[in-house]
Structures are given as structure tokens and as C-alpha cells.
Amino acid sequence: MRDTQPLLSVRNLTVAFPSLKDLVPAVRNVSFDVGREKVGIIGESGSGKSTTGRAIMRLHPGKTQITADRMQFQGLDLLSQSERQMRAIRGHRIAMILQDPKYSLNPVMTVGEQIAETAILHENLSRREARLRTIEMLEKVHIRDPERVMGLYPHEVSGGMGQRIMISMMLIAKPALIIADEPTSALDVSVRQQVLTILDELVTGNDMGLLFISHDLNLVRSFCDRVLIMYAGRVVEELRASELDQARHPYTQGLLEALPSLTDPKDRLAVLRRDPAWAEV
Ligand SMILES: Nc1ncnc2c1ncn2[C@@H]1O[C@H](COP(=O)(O)OP(=O)(O)OP(=O)(O)O)[C@@H](O)[C@H]1O
Question: Domain ABC transporter: where (predicted)?
């Protein structure tokens, strides 16, 4: 029977950073679930999207205060895991793709060595088997000349290729959940589509969950199944991507009105409205 429980269940997550005097909340009472589906988080800069993603991985500096009524992943309470237990979860059961793959790949190891190391760790393969698996994985993410790419260092690959390499490593580790934080915003439009297609193949083909953080509403609308809209540290609205046009919150409506359209061009785009009341409890 198919498991209908969400992979990740978050209730009233609050993240506060220390300032000179006290703690300043950047994320406030955020609640959502992620199943085996693609969930987008959108919102403007500073709305708390990345902070939410990093809190799930518990990747914040020491004095950050993370509280939640629930932050459960596949039956595990993430907040009560020790740092050692979190290390076993990160990369293995929950993986993260960031905007620039150069920061996620090890700069002093070739691409081939890094993928092979993942294969040896996860699948207990010999060096020779790991090499063959690496070639297979690079082919799966549509890299045409895998043997050449294996010998390159991270600084020698383009952004789009770097993201595909990250995705190929995830194909080996097969995490249940991927948190992708603006994974395509540094890429050209044509490469962006390629990377999204491969990410979709990975997630849908392996029945994974994806939390896709972006400031691009059009992209999230076409790529994700559901969308959380964040404003000033809160989720102000949650909708199926196909139902965004029926958004009720004035902030979401404003985001939609501010989008340029090729089919229905406007002389002037609407200016995004903001109301301090939306940030209130
Ligand atoms: N380590 C930190 N220490 C202190 N404040 C932080 C830290 N990380 C984030 N913040 C603050 O938390 C708030 C939310 O930031 P966050 O990066 O989550 O926003 P975002 O929606 O992801 O924006 P962007 O799209 O620009 O990445 C911001 O005000 C930011 O300055």
C-alpha cells in the first residue's frame, strides 16, 4: 500500500537570530507538509524562504533559536536529533541543492572522484564498479561526454553542468526529500529548463518529495504541484499551483498582477502592494 503520510510535517516553526540585544524572528509560526510531490516556496527577498529550508536541515549558526510544535521527517523528530544523527540525515535522507553548485561540490576533488565516493559510500561498490556507476549516473543526467567530465574540477564546469552533477549524486544517495534553494536562478533560460527537467525526472521517477525555494512565481507555477507564499517570515497563503489564479490573499494577488505576460501585455505592470498588517499574527 502506498504511504499516504507526508514525508515532512512542520507546525509552527519559528526561527530567531540573535541580534545585539535580543532574538529577532525571521520565520514565524510556519506550518506545512511535503509529501511525494513538488512544493514551491515563493516570496520576496528576506521573506524567510531560505531560513525555512535551512531550519529543516538544522543548518543554522549555533545561537539561532529554532522552535516548532512539530518538525517531523519520516517519523523522526528533527528537532530532537543530535548533531551526529543530523549528519546521517543530511545528504542521505534529506539533500539540498543550492544556487551555486560550486559551494556544494568539493573544490579539490574531481567530479568523477566525488560521484564515485558517493557510490562507494551508499552502494558499497569497488573502485572499478564505482567508476562504471559514475559514468552511468552522468549519462542519466544527460551529460554527453561523461569520461571527460569526470576528470574536471568543480571550477571547470558550468553552472548548469554543476547542478546536473549534484543531481547525479542524489540519484545515488536517493534521499526521500530534496530542498532546492533557487537551484536555477544563476542559469541561462535554456539551461534552466534542462536542469528542471532532470530534477523533475529525479523526483517523480523515484517518488521523492521536493521543497523548491524560488522568487520566480511563473517558474514555481509551472514546475510545482503546490505553492506556499511567504511574506515577512509567515506563510500567508497555500495553494495548488493550478489554482494560483484563485488566490485570496492580497499579497499573492499583487504578485500575480506584477507578472509580465507575453499573451496579455500591459502598458504598466502593477506595483506590488505591501501592508504591515500582513506581517501581524
Ligand atoms: N545567519 C543569519 N543571521 C542573522 N539574520 C539572518 C541570518 N540568515 C538570515 N537572516 C535574516 O533572516 C531574514 C530572512 O532571510 P532569508 O535568507 O530566509 O530570506 P529569503 O526569503 O530566502 O530571501 P532571498 O530570496 O534574498 O534569499 C532576513 O531578514 C535575513 O537578513
Answer: 8-257
